[in-house]
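Re: that chain you flagged

S.,

Sorry for the slow reply, it's been a week of failed gels. I finally had a moment to sit down with the sequence you sent. For the record, here it is as I used it:
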Amino acid sequence: MEEKKQRSLAEELKEKLSQDSETIEEIKEESKESAEDISDKEIEKKSNSITKKEIKVETKKLKENVDGKKETLIPLEDYIKCAVHLGTKVITPHMKKYVYKRRADGLAVINTSIIDEKIRSAIEFLNKFDVEKVYIVCKREAGWDSAKLFGEITGINTFTKKYPPGITTNLELDNFFESELTIICDPWIDKNALNDTARLKKPVLSLCDTNNYTTNVTQLIPCNNKSKKSIGCVLYLLARGYCKTKNIPFTATLEDFTGPLE
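Prediction finished late last night. Pasting the structure tokens below so you have them in one place:
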């Protein structure tokens, strides 16, 4: 029995070391790719410069690939206006299956019909958790306003700018609380919250762009997680779906989360 227990512990340690090694390699790779990739400011600029012609063309293409009987969470035109489909120049192996083409400027384009399906799945997943057992983290400035609004409407704990280390893992902290689900807006930028949650073996719901690695992410939404409009659009849909299930009043509009779309 003792020998079996020791072997089990050894196997567990070996598996943990293997996982840590993979994570370290992914961090190195992501750091390298981030240096070569398009900047957040450039993504924001391109997200805000989508033309009416592009909206029309992309929407037409999408409608050809979406079941005509299936209704999307918001009109396809709104997804394009919010630039939810715009990826980066880097496509990781983890995110390759969500990309269907590259634009002439090298940016990846995420399949919007898959984005819609994944948001639906994320809403169903989020609905399983009580409000006091969930928190959302968004260190990227582009998402601060929509993350705060998300928290105000749903009642979910929200952390922007800086994530308090150990807030869910260190019992001695005055602001410690127990959580069953962590929502993050980027596995790289919000990696401290991701790692804390992984240590607790709790689930993580994450917005993931084409340049992200998804290790320790339980439920993902493939999308542009660099721009205000895109992050706002996704959080609007999550908040709306969650409030509907939990009977929480919801009167916000898409533009309350994204800012003007025209």
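What I noticed first: The CA atoms of residues 72 and 117 lie 8 Å apart.

Talk soon,
D.
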